[in-house]
């Protein structure tokens, strides 16, 4: 629980500002309701958090990896912001402006700009999905039924957010190491070369109507020899139709 | 597209604002309320109702369309009740939510408000313009998409597709089904609702809750209220010191129920607890409507995440017990405990399903 605590507060100085704010409010704040919610209750919450018996029960019922969410109960943002406002209110003249600007800069420097996070990037469309996923899913969709398609790892998490009628032989569970899932088709898809001798029978075994392969990945074997037909090329991906698996459109569609 | 956005604006803005009339009087004994209070409390009443309606339908394996019909009826009923309550009390929307002050404080306030609105606009534009690749969306957003398409709830594998048995333990926290509801009612794709529309609404709501907290902490018309909001924005914008912080969840994963729990439900619960303590400090009677909001917030917590049962229980116990000792008012504990009962029920259901 100590390592979870450290991870939660990261490397910034926010925890220091929070602690300083709680101490300031403990000394200066007179209103009982503010002391209860911003000073006393957080101390109790921290005692609860560090209670090994409590932690054991939560670990047992909900798992250890979400235990840090107990720290969401600490009103850090509100406490720090309110303390800054209290100090600001106690100052006079130009000191007030200087304090507000200085504190804003200090808080900004103590944290990390959220949009600088490498996981943030410009959305390619209004779905916030990669364009390739949108184009591929729209292209392979057939009326009245689901289709099965094998995608490369980097697209797995997006496919079924966009299209519920595109099914996959493996999904995002393959990307979470601690879940320890394995799938031979996924392993074959993620090899440096797309060896059709291995891929084609597995794709048929998993009833894949389509297989999506990066165009920059070398193909070993001729697709036509394995009943694969190039269906579409979009962005960095090539979509192959696996003719070994029939794709029958239901009557009435 | 414009019609879809208008429908979503009705369900995310107008309907909560309207329904929030039912909570008038919880904040202020004069029955006055601010627009943010009305909007947020109305949304919590809607969310609470959704949780109550949706979970039994999920457990019974019923169709999603049944939930759509019943919840739409609930929304209509709530709006009619709110209208009737408003007419009865003849409560009017105050033209100004803040008392303007002249001189330096007024100028200061204007400057801080301008900074606040600019930073908020920046965040909302970024919410639409930028995307955050989070793997958990493959579960939550896929559930919304499947629910809207297949009309079943938690009966298909979100990662791969294909039928599975009822995944009832996830059905205890049907926030993705609420997103599917918005998609179905507006006609917009669930993936767009989740990634593009909801972040705008939920990030705005988070700041509305911070506004409420600031209003409770600072005197009305004080220039420090917008300054308080500016500081909360700075702390949020620079809240990437850890990917686990509630601020990070709010900006990066606002469409996920757990993000709403950390950045909306818990701050609103804190606001309600602050309001409760304030009333105890001023030796006022605690209005029943305040407890109604506690129940709605507890239900909303469960809608967002099953972990809410634990978090809300611990928070209520910590603040409630401290307040009971400080004010020597032990009688606040039974109603506060009763407000947590929904959490206990859903937690027990979750454990049974596990």
The value of Rg of chain A in angstroms is 27 Å
What is the terminal separation of chain A in angstroms?
57 Å
Shape of chain B: globular
Strand percentage of chain B, roughly?
under 5%
| Topology, number of strands of chain A | 8
Q: Which assembly state applies to the chains in this document?
A: heterodimer
Q: Secondary-structure element sequence of chain B?
A: HHHHEHHHHHHHHHH
Spatial sequence of strands, sheet with the most strands of chain A: 3-2-5-8-7
Low-confidence sequence ranges of chain B? 95-104
**Largest sheet composition of chain A:** 5 strands, mixed
Mean pLDDT of chain A: 91
Order of helices and strands of chain A: HHHHHHEHEHEHEHEEEE
Short description:
With about 250 residues, chain A is α/β, with parallel strands linked by helices.
Tell me about this structure.
The complex is a heterodimer of chains A (253) and B (354). By secondary structure, chain A is of the alpha/beta class. Chain A has 2 domains: 2-116, no CATH class; 131-242, no CATH class. Chain A has 10 helices and 8 strands. Chain A has helices at 2-9, 14-28, 32-49, 52-62, 76-90, 94-110, 131-140, 156-162, 184-189, 196-205; strands spanning 120-122, 147-150, 166-167, 194-195, 210-214, 219-220, 228-234, 237-242. A 5-stranded mixed beta sheet of chain A has the order 3-2-5-8-7. A two-stranded parallel sheet of chain A has the order 4-6. The longest helix of chain A is centred in the first third of the chain and has 18 residues, at 32-49. Chain A is elongated, with a radius of gyration of 27 Å. Chain B has helices at 2-19, 35-59, 64-89, 103-129, 137-150, 175-186, 190-217, 224-237, 246-252, 257-281, 288-304, 308-327, 333-339, 341-353; one strand at 130-132. The longest helix of chain B is centred in the middle third of the chain and has 28 residues, at 190-217. At the A-B interface, helix 1, helix 3, helix 4, helix 5 and helix 6 of A face helix 4, strand 1, helix 5, helix 7 and helix 8 of B. Strand 1 (120-122) of chain A pairs antiparallel with strand 1 (130-132) of chain B.
């Amino acid at each position: 629980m100590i390592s979870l605590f450290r991870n939660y507060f990261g490397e910034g100085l926010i925890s220091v500002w929070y602690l300083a704010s709680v101490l300031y409010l403990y000394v200066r704040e007179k209103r009982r309701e503010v002391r209860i919610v911003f000073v006393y209750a957080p101390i109790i919450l921290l005692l609860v958090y560090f209670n090994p018996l409590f932690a054991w029960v939560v670990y047992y019922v909900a798992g250890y990896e979400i235990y840090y969410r107990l720290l969401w109960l600490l009103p850090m943002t509100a406490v720090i912001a309110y303390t800054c406002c209290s100090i600001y209110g106690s100052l006079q003249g130009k000191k007030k402006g200087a304090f507000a600007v200085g504190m804003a800069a200090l808080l900004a420097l103590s944290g990390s700009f959220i949009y600088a996070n490498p996981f943030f990037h410009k959305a390619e469309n209004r779905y916030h999905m990669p364009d390739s996923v949108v184009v591929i899913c729209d292209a392979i969709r057939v009326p009245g039924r689901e289709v099965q398609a094998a995608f490369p790892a980097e697209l797995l998490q997006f496919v079924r957010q966009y299209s519920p009628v595109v099914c996959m032989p493996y999904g995002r569970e393959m990307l979470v190491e601690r879940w320890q899932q394995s799938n031979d088709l996924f392993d074959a898809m993620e090899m440096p070369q797309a060896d059709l001798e291995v891929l084609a029978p597995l794709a048929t075994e998993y009833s894949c109507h389509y297989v999506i392969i990066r165009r920059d990945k070398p193909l070993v074997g001729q697709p036509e020899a394995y009943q694969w037909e190039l269906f579409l090329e979009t962005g960095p991906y090539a979509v192959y139709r696996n003719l070994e698996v029939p794709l029958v459109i239901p009557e009435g569609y | 597209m414009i019609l879809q956005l208008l429908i979503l604006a009705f369900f995310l803005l107008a309907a909560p604002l309207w329904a929030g009339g039912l909570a008038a009087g919880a904040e202020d004994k004069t029955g006055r309320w601010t627009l943010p209070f009305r909007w947020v409390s109305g949304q919590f009443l809607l969310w609470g109702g959704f949780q109550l309606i949706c979970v039994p339908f999920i457990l019974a394996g019923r169709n999603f369309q049944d939930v759509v019909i019943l919840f739409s009826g609930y929304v209509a009923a709530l709006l009619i009740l709110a209208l009737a309550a408003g007419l009865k009390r003849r409560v009017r929307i105050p033209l100004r939510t803040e008392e303007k002050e002249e001189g330096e404080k007024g100028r200061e306030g204007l400057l801080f408000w301008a900074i606040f609105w600019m930073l908020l606009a920046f965040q909302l534009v970024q919410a639409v313009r930028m995307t955050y690749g989070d793997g958990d969306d493959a579960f939550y957003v896929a559930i919304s998409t499947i629910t809207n398409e297949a009309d079943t709830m938690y009966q298909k594998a979100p990662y791969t597709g294909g039928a599975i048995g009822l995944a009832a333990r996830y059905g205890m926290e049907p926030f993705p089904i609420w997103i599917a509801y918005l998609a179905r009612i507006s006609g917009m794709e669930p993936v767009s609702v989740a990634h593009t529309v909801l972040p705008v609404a939920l990030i705005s709501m988070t700041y509305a809750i911070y506004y409420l907290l600031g209003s409770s902490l600072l005197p009305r018309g004080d220039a420090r209220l917008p300054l308080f909001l500016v500081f909360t924005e700075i702390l949020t914008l620079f809240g990437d010191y850890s990917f686990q912080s509630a601020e990070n969840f709010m900006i990066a994963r606002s469409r996920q129920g757990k993000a709403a729990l950390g950045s909306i439900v818990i701050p609103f619960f804190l606001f309600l607890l602050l309001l409760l303590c304030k009333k105890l400090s001023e030796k006022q009677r605690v209005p029943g409507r305040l407890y109604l909001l506690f129940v709605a917030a507890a239900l909303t917590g469960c809608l967002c995440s099953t972990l809410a049962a634990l978090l809300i229980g611990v928070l209520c116990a910590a603040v409630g017990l401290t307040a009971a000792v400080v004010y020597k008012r032990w009688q606040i504990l039974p109603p506060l405990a009763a407000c947590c009962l929904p959490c206990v029920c859903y937690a027990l259901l979750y454990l049974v399903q596990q």
